[in-house]
Amino acid sequence: MSQARYDHSVAGLGEANFEKLRTCKVLVVGAGGIGCELLKNLVLVGCEKLTVVDLDTIDVSNLNRQFLFRKKHVGKSKAVVAGEAIKRFNPNVEVEAIHGNIITNPLFKVDWFRGFDAVINALDNVDARRHVNRMCLAADKPLIEAGTTGFLGQVFCIRKGETACYECFPKPQRVVYPICTIRSTASQPVHCVVWAKELFKLLFGDASASMLFDDPAAEGEPSSFAAACAAVRTTTEPSKAVGAALAALCDTEVKAQLALGTYKTAKKVPTPLSSPELTEGASSQPPSTIQNRPADWDRAVWTAPQCSAEIAEVARELLSADMKDRLGSWEFDKDDEASMRFVAAAANLRCRVFHIDPLSLYEAKGVAGNIVPAIATTNAVVAGLQVLELLRLVEQKCILSKERTSLAEVGRYTYCQRFPTGRKCELLQPVALEGPQPTCYVCSKSTVVVALDTTETTLQTFVDVVLKKKLGFIDPSIEKGHTGYVDSANPEQAVLLPRVLAELPDGGVTQGTRLEAEDFANEQIKFTIEVRHKPNKDFDEKANPERVDILTGVAEAAAPAPAAVATHLDFVQNDENAGPPAAKKARTDA
């Protein structure tokens, strides 16, 4: 290859290695903050065989750091637009851009992953990272992971049998707030945002799954807002119905709780909002519809009537004729404008009731999405490190070579720190990769020990909480010996789902029962689950409301690393590119 555009790559790699790089088939998963930088870097060093997958569309908020996108691209597929943009950087590149979900799209099976020489992640959530990790292990393909959280970042490589996989070490658990805190005793802005998300679910989503839902069959008096909220779903006058519901939630219900003495010991006693202010406000003009509004309108804190008006406007949108069929299935999404406006407005009202400083739309979005502000330069540094790892794989014969070198010998786990660290005052700290952990149920096939109450936990809960939520299964199958309990291909077994574990066929699932679990979405995921009985009364309901403990399947705590170097066990959640281990907690807490 004699093109001048590649002289720098040929000089660094040599003709033979550069030719391997040029024809290397690379899959990039994600075209957001890191993904844009990564794709640009790949085509500039000479990679000409690229496939990029992303399920998102471009939002205005992406434009300040995802530089392949322009205002005219808002609403379009990130993968498609990014693919078109990188072809302008390098017309020689062959790029396949796919707008789809890497987890659920039937195209993305193990055999599809086997068609690539290397996979590079630029993802924004743990579930997708976990899935790609498992697919790369099953396909025996190297995976180059990365993530950023503000000024912090990390890059590392994964390969079956050679290095620790993404799931060898524990991930941060999402904070779960007790129902009583959300329904009655808010003390922080985040409590109000969670309450608002639950209200969105109650009004437009699966109402029975909301913390605010009152079961009609339950004993006791229903809440004073139940009927008013239920009426919103069937109303032909959204403004009137929303006004009545908000008055019930923020006035009538608060007065009822005060009369019951709920807040006798509270540091701050809530104050009911004015019902007329809420009902009349619901018929006024919402901030989002004001013509020629200032560019920073989302930074303003809305008044109570404005919040009421905004909620009514969202109700009109979601209850409109063309949206009516989705009623009951809506889920909150911080990137969905309507649901985010609703949550910001409802959280603002809740804050006012409990004397908490109200939030702007911008602030509420940060809380709702657990967002740490993205730093474009951190994304650029991390994406550059990912490409350097790919060059290392080619040069050191880890890929595209008959004599395969182990990643454990040449790979590095590189931390990007916010401040110079260690004796050499380094911002980038490479450390050796760790090997597969013997306790990892994904790459080492260890037995997973699960503790729960076998006399009260149903098979449905076991599938939803243990297999799907905690262990990341997509299409699970469970067997005890020769007896099948769960199999999507056998609908007759669905009758077992409501039964408690101890009452299942063949002696049920009790203390010491061993189950064989398999994920049909990735047939390489097979392992044994040992069940231990732990009565529900022995769980701390606030710390573990699901009442399930996973006792093995993650590594034991490692010995402390030198003060200058972070360890694999230090994980933080980032806003758009995150999930994997990040930098030292001492730094993130500062």
Secondary-structure map with pairings?
Elements: H1 7-13, H2 15-23, E1 25-29, H3 33-45, E2 49-54, H4 78-89, E3 94-99, H5 110-113, E4 118-121, H6 126-139, E5 143-149, E6 152-158, H7 179-183, H8 189-204, H9 226-234, H10 238-259, H11 275-281, H12 304-318, H13 337-353, H14 361-368, H15 376-395, H16 407-410, E7 412-421, E8 426-432, E9 448-452, H17 459-470, E10 476-480, E11 483-486, E12 514-519, E13 526-533, E14 549-550, H18 585-588
Parallel strand pairs: 1-2, 1-4, 2-3, 4-5, 9-13
Antiparallel strand pairs: 5-6, 6-7, 7-8, 9-14, 10-11, 10-12, 12-13
Helix pairs in contact: 1-2, 3-4, 3-15, 8-13, 9-10, 10-11, 10-12, 11-12, 12-13, 13-14
How would you explain this protein's 3D organization?
This protein is α/β, with parallel strands linked by helices and 590 residues long. It has 3 domains: 4-169 and 373-432, Rossmann fold (3-Layer(aba) Sandwich); 187-355, Orthogonal Bundle (Arc Repressor Mutant, subunit A); 448-550, Structural Genomics Hypothetical 15.5 Kd Protein In mrcA-pckA Intergenic Region, Chain A. Helices cover 34% and strands 14% of the residues. The protein contains 18 helices and 14 strands. The strands form 2 sheets. Strands 3-2-1-4-5-6-7-8 form an 8-stranded mixed sheet, sandwiched between helices. The protein has a 6-stranded mixed sheet with strand order 11-10-12-13-9-14, covered by helices on one side. Helix 3 packs across helix 15 (376-395) and helix 9 (226-234) runs antiparallel to helix 10. The radius of gyration is 26 Å and the shape is globular. The chain starts with 6 loop residues before the first helix and ends with a helix.
